[in-house]
Amino acid sequence: MPTSRTSTYAPGDVVVVPFPYSDRSAEKRRPALVVSNDEVGSAGFLWLVMITTAQNSNMEHDLPIENLSDAGLTTPSIVRPTKIANVEPSRILRRAGRLRDDQADAVFDSVRSFIGRSRRRKTAGSP
What we know:
By secondary structure, the protein is α+β, with helices and mostly antiparallel strands. It has a single domain, classed as SH3 type barrels, CATH 2.30.30. Helices cover 17% and strands 33% of the residues.
């Protein structure tokens, strides 16, 4: 169900949310980056990408956050574009800050690179 709170959050905003574990067994309160646009928001959802401390940076596509103060973070952190969650805006605890446009754009590009097939699969009867 659409909600008016979606317009409160824009792509590039850092929010604090109970971020779900990938197996859905639990949640952990953490910062996350809003990557969805108004079209997703009008459906009543937000797409969020996980933010974690830089000491946990061990995945290939992790991106460091350079402007910690503007992002509302106090500890060196990274954005992990391979971990994305779909949440209702009512789950957001607060807005913490915002990434610089160039950093947010790098995350958006990374997320887009994971959507769809990376190469065309052959089907029965195709060359």
